[in-house]
Amino acid sequence: VTLSGITGDGTLRVAIAGGTASDLSGNLAGGAGPSDTVTVDNSGPIITLNGDARVAIAVDTLYVDDGATALDTVDGDRTDAIVAEIPVITSIVGEYTVTYTVSDTLGNESSATRIVVVEGPEPKFLYVDAAAAFKVGTGTSDDPFSTIGEAMEIAFAERGDLRVEAFRLDI
Fold first, then answer.
1. How many angstroms separate the CA atoms of 44 and 42, rounded?
2. The pTM is what?
3. pLDDT of residue 72
4. Distance separating the N- and C-terminal Cα atoms of the chain
5. Does 34 sit behind a cis peptide bond, omega within 30 degrees of 0 on the bond before it?
6. What percent of the chain clears pLDDT 70, i.e. is strictly above it?
7. In whole angstroms, how far apart are CA 8 and each of 16, 40, 73?
8. Does residue 9 surpass a pLDDT of 80?
9. pLDDT tens digits for 49-58?
10. CA dist 130 → 84, 90, 138, 145, 155 (Å)
11. What is the pLDDT of residue 138?
12. pLDDT at 131
């Protein structure tokens, strides 16, 4: 007897009533069963995050992931089988997704995610307008600096560092 298309999880026992099954020659079989109990497992392990699902850290600090645990209804503890993908770059401000994936021995897979937010100072935009030559501005869009050098000097003095992420020159 072949059973297919079984959904859900749990246990299954099969009994065949006499005269309801036949072989390829058409010979009717006597009753059989019930069979041994068979466990049906169509679900992956349940992953539980250790710690919060969303974590914020300061830029340029060490990130240590809290990890996760996994428990399967049939296989039990699957924590040691978890594969964690941790793409967090602590030197770059942004939002990163840590993914935990685990399968049970039948290949049923589960995953869970944690969001890690690397926080840092907001970038400061300084505006330069070469047409405003010989005018000292404040660097805002309404009052631009007259030279790029002036903008860089002010940025370095205010922040102690300088990082140019984009440069656009309209002529």
1. 7
2. 0.60
3. 96
4. 80
5. yes
6. 56
7. 22, 7, 12
8. no
9. 999 999 999 9
10. 51, 36, 14, 8, 18
11. 57
12. 60
Question: For every residue of 25-62, which 3-state class applies, written as one string?
Answer: CCCECCCECCCCCEEECCCCCEEEECCCCEEEEECCCC
- Taking CB atoms within 8 Å and a gap of at least 24, the contacts of 153-161 are 154/126, 155/124, 155/126, 158/124, 159/121, 159/124
Residue pair 16/31 in contact (Cβ under 8 Å)? The answer is yes
What residues have CB less than 8 Å from 144, skipping those under 6 apart? 127, 128, 129, 132, 137
Q: What average pLDDT does the segment 9-23 reach?
A: 68
Residue 89 has pLDDT above 80, yes or no: yes
Contacts of 140 (CB under 8 A, 6+ apart): 127
Q: What DSSP line would sit under 60-121, residue for residue?
A: TS------EEEEETTTEE-GGG-EEE----TTS-EEEEEEEEEE-TT--EEEEEEEEEEE-P
Q: What is the sign of the dihedral through the CA atoms of 144, 148, 154 and 158?
A: positive
Cα–Cα dist 42/118, whole Å: 37
Distance CA 71, CA 85 (A): 19
What is the spatial distance between Cα 51 and Cα 114, in angstroms, rounded to a whole number? Answer: 9
Q: Is the pLDDT of residue 171 over 80?
A: no
